Batch of 2 targets.
Target 1
Amino acid sequence: MTTSSQTSSRFKDELRILSPWAYALAALVFVAIPVLFVVFIGRDPKAPPFAVRCLLGAIAGTLLACYVILIGYINRDAGRRGMSRLWWTLLAMFVPNGLGIVLYFILRKPRTAHCPQCAAEVAPGFSFCPRCRNRLQPVCPHCQRAVDLGDKFCPYCGGALEPSAVAPAAPAAIQPPLSS
Ligand SMILES: [Zn+2]
Ligand SMILES: [Zn+2]
């Protein structure tokens, strides 16, 4: 898998958290702003020519729709990072020049994940759940370090990686805890 396709699929996954109202509002803005520019500003005798109004309307509509999508994203994303959804949404909306949005992406906390087996909170980058030893990420069977799914050899110890050994373990395939 190439990096660009990974990035785009991650981008699609991220957009999936948006609520339908954010999409609806963005679509409305995307249509309403050009109409406003072309029809209503056109009634002003000093208005710029039709083609210029179309272009300005399309640009303004696209920018505002992106702005709405970003605010909708922050509204959802803040929640899954344990940050205040209300305050960050308000900041993103009302701090001028999009600075609230920029601030959010600088200050946002790392996303907390949960172990699929015991629901314990696990930090990004953990290979095993610290509470139940569930395997969270593909790991090298020889040195237990995190590896990529597509790798054939471990980048740390050079050991051969079999596809079945690297795949995240299903609950049934979990190794029993080491006896002490
Ligand atoms: Zn666990
Ligand atoms: Zn290894």
Note: The pocket of zinc ion (ligand 2) is lined by residues 140, 142-143, 145, 154, 156-157, 159 (CB under 6 Å).
Target 2
Amino acid sequence: MNGLVICLFILTCFATPIYATPISWAGNGHSYEVVQDVYSWNNARIAATQRSYLGQPGYLATMNSPEENLWVSTTFSQAAFCHWIGANYSYSTMRQSWYWASGEPWSFANWNIGEPGVLNGIENAVSFTPITNEYGFTWWDMNGSQAQIGYVVEYNVPEPSSILLLVIGSFSIFYRKPKSPTGLFLFI
Ligand SMILES: [Ca+2]
């Protein structure tokens, strides 16, 4: 699928919103952002690992469930379609299958109708399409050496509420009120 041509055409028709910071999904506590830069799949993969958020390195996003795919699609909407995600195809005789570059198990796919084409070893990388179904953006397999208009990054960072609870918990462990001579805590 020559998705790049289609994506560039669609982008001329729609303004895409930009998000300043990654956004957290309560479903797994991970944070996500879209980066609009014209990269091949492998260069996008490298660029994603060089980004960081709250001290955690990024990686090309993995859609591990219908819920995750739908959340990313609805949260970022037009900013995310036609962007690379972390799926790639291995042509090694040992593997010959789709896999996530992050190493996570392959448990879900949301191919567009007629995909994946694979096309004799040419279409080996995956991007969102502008077409949605009940699980959000469907996927194209594309020639990973060609450029796509951006990529989606995922970070394994806790939700902000979890970080706050961790800080409060740590503070309560290290902070103890002084005891009175009778052994009771002084409430001052
Ligand atoms: Ca994921």
Note: The chain has a mean pLDDT of 83.
